[in-house]
Amino acid sequence: VLHSTRPLHTSQQCSAPVPPLPEKGGEVRHGLIPEEFFQFLYPKTGVTGPYMLGTGLLLYLLSKEIYVVNHETVASACILAVIIYGVKKFGPDVAAFADKLNEEKVASALAVKNEAIKDLETAIEQEKKEQWRVEGRSYLFDAKRNNVAMLLETNYRERLMTVYSEVKKRLDYQLAMQNLKRQKEQDHMIQWVEKSVIQSITPQQQKESVAKCILDLKALSRSAQAAA
Amino acid sequence: MNLSFFDQFASPCLLGIPLILLSMLFPYLLISPQDNRWLSNRLSTLQLWFINLITKQLMLPLNKNGHKWALILTSLMTFLLLTNLLGLLPYTFTPTTQLSMNMALALPLWLATLLTGLRNQPSISLGHLLPEGTPTPLIPALILIETTSLLIRPLALGVRLTANLTAGHLLIQLIATATSVLLPILPSVSILTALILLLLTILEVAVAMIQAYVFVLLLSLYLQENI
């Protein structure tokens, strides 16, 4: 395949790198004749040269009946009219469509590239954040260590408290036992003394003491009346 | 030179050398060769897009086995489309106006679909001869009718394409003759005829494209039944 952008026979044909396509197609006048033809004739015949050539050629063919006008001429006029109308009307749209197809191809590839770049940038951000986090590692460990120490201390104190309360319970028990014993002994003694005293009271003594109490009460009432 | 109406259908010959093969290869001058580029020029991009469109459309209803036919159907479509369209230019020989060529395209391809069907799934292929839901007394007659319709398919394919194109070309020639003959006599009627010719030309462009599409579509339908 001959690459059209490479001038003929100037260098070897090679497939890679692919030579770039020209930006625009070759210039044509009236849609058919390349501009180079007009430039070729310009030095000798000026601007009207090619047109004179065309007209002369056409008239020569017609007058000498080298080209015969028959029904095909009419048919060709029609098909040419249809073709030219089609090209003039739909040409720019078709060209825009072809350009759009190429644009979409390029855009999708660019989109892939941009997505990859964005993803990598996000990954870099994440990595930086992780590095910053690593710096604060010592503080984290200190805090954790303090936490653990506090837990241990609390636990120790709780257990100390348990021991103290248990010992106190045992001692209280002993104390209560002794108090109870003393109390019982006291009560028992009092009861025995009362019982013996009550037993030792003779009936004689009882009558005497009751009479004495009555005399005392009378005296008291008299003093109370006197006072009032 | 004075042309009769049928000179356009004569197989081209130069000094006794038949040029038919050259005229059949002409359309491929219009298709740009495959370029090893990612982004090509407008023509290549459009042609590639068009071929992709045709292939996708043709291969949609076919199963995986049918995808083996992608290359031949797409290239057939491209060939017929370009040949028909090129034939509308003046003094151009259209190969597809020759019955011999169209039969040479239609008969082998149709026979290939039939034999593929009969070889791989014979009962299903033969089952297509009887449409569903026919009442029992009609079955023998219907089998005969369906067999006839099956055997006439290649003839129909070839003759359809030939007849459409030949008729179109002949009509163009006739109406053009009428226009050119009436021009010195009754110019106004000549203008009217020229208008008819213009409309006919547009019709012929459409017919050229449609006939190519119909040919390939029918072949793909026959393939669908049998593969």
UniProtKB/TrEMBL annotation, chain A:
<keyword id="KW-0406">Ion transport</keyword>
<dbReference type="GO" id="GO:0005743">
    <property type="term" value="C:mitochondrial inner membrane"/>
</dbReference>
<keyword id="KW-0472">Membrane</keyword>
<keyword id="KW-0999">Mitochondrion inner membrane</keyword>
<dbReference type="InterPro" id="IPR013837">
    <property type="entry name" value="ATP_synth_F0_suB"/>
</dbReference>
<keyword id="KW-0496">Mitochondrion</keyword>
<dbReference type="GO" id="GO:0045259">
    <property type="term" value="C:proton-transporting ATP synthase complex"/>
</dbReference>
<dbReference type="InterPro" id="IPR008688">
    <property type="entry name" value="ATP_synth_Bsub_B/MI25"/>
</dbReference>
<keyword id="KW-0813">Transport</keyword>
<dbReference type="GO" id="GO:0046933">
    <property type="term" value="F:proton-transporting ATP synthase activity, rotational mechanism"/>
</dbReference>
<comment type="function">
    <text>Subunit b, of the mitochondrial membrane ATP synthase complex (F(1)F(0) ATP synthase or Complex V) that produces ATP from ADP in the presence of a proton gradient across the membrane which is generated by electron transport complexes of the respiratory chain. ATP synthase complex consist of a soluble F(1) head domain - the catalytic core - and a membrane F(1) domain - the membrane proton channel. These two domains are linked by a central stalk rotating inside the F(1) region and a stationary peripheral stalk.</text>
</comment>
<dbReference type="Pfam" id="PF05405">
    <property type="entry name" value="Mt_ATP-synt_B"/>
</dbReference>
<keyword id="KW-0138">CF(0)</keyword>
<protein>
    <recommendedName>
        <fullName>ATP synthase subunit b</fullName>
    </recommendedName>
</protein>
<comment type="similarity">
    <text>Belongs to the eukaryotic ATPase B chain family.</text>
</comment>
<comment type="subunit">
    <text>F-type ATPases have 2 components, CF(1) - the catalytic core - and CF(0) - the membrane proton channel. CF(1) and CF(0) have multiple subunits.</text>
</comment>
<keyword id="KW-0375">Hydrogen ion transport</keyword>
<feature type="region of interest" description="Disordered">
    <location>
        <begin position="1"/>
        <end position="22"/>
    </location>
</feature>
Automatic annotation (TrEMBL), chain B:
<keyword id="KW-0406">Ion transport</keyword>
<keyword id="KW-0138">CF(0)</keyword>
<dbReference type="InterPro" id="IPR035908">
    <property type="entry name" value="F0_ATP_A_sf"/>
</dbReference>
<keyword id="KW-0472">Membrane</keyword>
<comment type="subunit">
    <text>Component of the ATP synthase complex composed at least of ATP5F1A/subunit alpha, ATP5F1B/subunit beta, ATP5MC1/subunit c (homooctomer), MT-ATP6/subunit a, MT-ATP8/subunit 8, ATP5ME/subunit e, ATP5MF/subunit f, ATP5MG/subunit g, ATP5MK/subunit k, ATP5MJ/subunit j, ATP5F1C/subunit gamma, ATP5F1D/subunit delta, ATP5F1E/subunit epsilon, ATP5PF/subunit F6, ATP5PB/subunit b, ATP5PD/subunit d, ATP5PO/subunit OSCP.</text>
</comment>
<feature type="transmembrane region" description="Helical">
    <location>
        <begin position="192"/>
        <end position="223"/>
    </location>
</feature>
<keyword id="KW-0812">Transmembrane</keyword>
<keyword id="KW-0496">Mitochondrion</keyword>
<comment type="similarity">
    <text>Belongs to the ATPase A chain family.</text>
</comment>
<dbReference type="GO" id="GO:0045259">
    <property type="term" value="C:proton-transporting ATP synthase complex"/>
</dbReference>
<dbReference type="GO" id="GO:0005743">
    <property type="term" value="C:mitochondrial inner membrane"/>
</dbReference>
<feature type="transmembrane region" description="Helical">
    <location>
        <begin position="12"/>
        <end position="31"/>
    </location>
</feature>
<dbReference type="InterPro" id="IPR045083">
    <property type="entry name" value="ATP_synth_F0_asu_bact/mt"/>
</dbReference>
<feature type="transmembrane region" description="Helical">
    <location>
        <begin position="168"/>
        <end position="186"/>
    </location>
</feature>
<keyword id="KW-0813">Transport</keyword>
<keyword id="KW-0375">Hydrogen ion transport</keyword>
<dbReference type="Pfam" id="PF00119">
    <property type="entry name" value="ATP-synt_A"/>
</dbReference>
<dbReference type="GO" id="GO:0046933">
    <property type="term" value="F:proton-transporting ATP synthase activity, rotational mechanism"/>
</dbReference>
<dbReference type="InterPro" id="IPR023011">
    <property type="entry name" value="ATP_synth_F0_asu_AS"/>
</dbReference>
<feature type="transmembrane region" description="Helical">
    <location>
        <begin position="69"/>
        <end position="89"/>
    </location>
</feature>
<dbReference type="InterPro" id="IPR000568">
    <property type="entry name" value="ATP_synth_F0_asu"/>
</dbReference>
<protein>
    <recommendedName>
        <fullName>ATP synthase subunit a</fullName>
    </recommendedName>
</protein>
